[in-house]
Amino acid sequence: MERKIIITAAIFGILAIILGAFGAHALKAILTAEQLTSFETGVRYQMYHAFFLFFVASRTELPLKTLKVIYNLVLAGVLLFSGSIFLLTTKNVTTIDFKIIGFVTPIGGMLLIFAWLVLLATFFKKKS
């Protein structure tokens, strides 16, 4: 499981760097300031959770079940949160209006919060 988490974290990190550069250079002239700020938020949260996954994978005291729960919450959360932000903010580029998926952004955010809560609860339950 640790290998899977680290691979996913590395992919999230690589994509965050690529998307961040794409946003800063290619999209800067196309997107509004508000859209660019939102796009950057998606990139930032994706990178935060890449680091979070690296951290979780390094914690030997976490049970396998907890690792799986956190991994699945972060994977779904990043895809829904950051992914929907990327689609919603680039409608000028794709000419596709993704407003219909706007409701998944907060769902993705909640999944990310739940991942952190699972980690917190696991350490609160721990005796030492």
TrEMBL record:
It is found in: Membrane. Keywords: Membrane, Transmembrane, Transmembrane helix. Its main location: membrane. It comes from the Bacteria. The chain crosses the membrane at residues 5-25, 69-88, 100-124. It is a multi-pass membrane protein. The keyword Membrane applies. PANTHER family: TRANSMEMBRANE PROTEIN 256 (PTHR43461:SF1). Belongs to the UPF0382 family. This is DUF423 domain-containing protein.
